[in-house]
Amino acid sequence: MALRVDPASDEDLKRLIPVIFDAYGGHNPYLNAAFPRNLTKEGQEKALQRVLDMQVSNETSQWEKVTDTATGEIIGGAMWLIYQKEKSEIHELDGPSGTWENETEKEYAQALYNSYVREERAFWESNHLAPVSKLSLPSGK
Fold first, then answer.
1. What do you get for the CA distance between the two ends of the chain, in Å?
2. 43 with 36: CB under 8 angstroms?
3. Which class for 25: exposed (0-12), middle (13-18), buried (19 or more C-beta within 10 A)?
4. Could you say which DSSP state residue 133 is in?
């Protein structure tokens, strides 16, 4: 199987978001907290909206897709945060109204996220280097 990696368009992200969540099958506690109901159409639509909003609000966010060249099927992807300038602002985990069923769910998701990025932020604050972050998303294949 020949694979190709390309930047993902907004239209590609509509196809990629379900691939990501289907690959984890509801077994990733962080994704379940950060993107509630991610195996449902409603949850995936909210996740897509958050991703698209981040593309606009966070200039460092760059999505890549992995395509099976024989079938044209998107089989995986990754979001990279690439800092081309010295240190940009730190973004907190958030989402549009209705992302979480209640404030407790949101606080739990934010606590998980903060534990995930704690070391990255400490490194970020301790020097003048601009780190590269990657959220890698397997295809499940």
1. 12
2. yes
3. exposed
4. E
Cα–Cα distance, 103 to 80 (Å, whole number): 28
Give residue limits of the domains in the chain.
3-86+96-137
Instruction: Say which CATH topology domain 3-86+96-137 has.
Output: Aminopeptidase (3.40.630)
pLDDT per residue as tens digits for the range 28-44: 998 999 999 999 999 99
- pLDDT for 130: 59
Say whether pLDDT at 103 is over 90: yes
Q: d(Cα 39, Cα 28) in Å, to the nearest integer?
A: 12
Q: How large is the angle between the packed helices 41-57 and 10-24, nearest 10 degrees?
A: 130
Q: Could you read off the pLDDT of 42-94 as tens digits, one per residue?
A: 999 999 999 998 888 888 889 999 999 999 999 999 998 777 766 666 778 88
